[in-house]
Amino acid sequence: MHPFDVETLTAGRWRNGGGATREIVSWPVGAEGFAWRASVADIDRDGPFSAFPGVDRTLTLLAGDGVRLTSPGAFDRLLDQVGEPFGFSGDLALSAELPGGACRVLNLMVRRGSRTARVERVTGTVTPAAGHAGVLYVLRGRWRAGADGRLMTGGQGVWWDADDEAPGRAVAPLSPDAAALWADVAPAR
């Protein structure tokens, strides 16, 4: 498992100036195109989102009052509950509105036909399936990850690839208030 702390990840500004992205992982690492990618985005103002043709996306609110995502003729959705994922096609023209000011989201993207993804809020032990990749992002509380027993708190987490060894990959809560997001990335069938 590969640890991360969002606050130590390099933030890259969006081309339209509406936010910044902190990349957790883009797999395969160093490749021109990704099979799957996880990042944390700070959305600073209303505006368009970039399209990602051939990609399925899942956004999950991490902090702030929320973001309204609109794609004409497809959906108009207010994400205002921390930890509630929303999946949509990256092919769609999309705009964001911030009814309560800036917010932070987890953005998971998978190349359609190559991978599928499921994001859920968890409060109990997570053991990734062999052959699956993914990310565990701590929302609150204390967690322990992997065979080395790495301790994590809010804004920290781990990611793994399908080729990482399965033994010892369980991630477990250590406090009664523990909550996390688990993004399971599976090979497409």
TrEMBL record:
Highest taxon, organism lineage: Bacteria
Record-linked InterPro entries: RmlC-like_jellyroll, RmlC_Cupin_sf, Uncharacterised_HutD/Ves
Family annotation (Gene3D superfamilies): Jelly Rolls
UniProt protein name: HutD family protein
Organism: Streptomyces wedmorensis
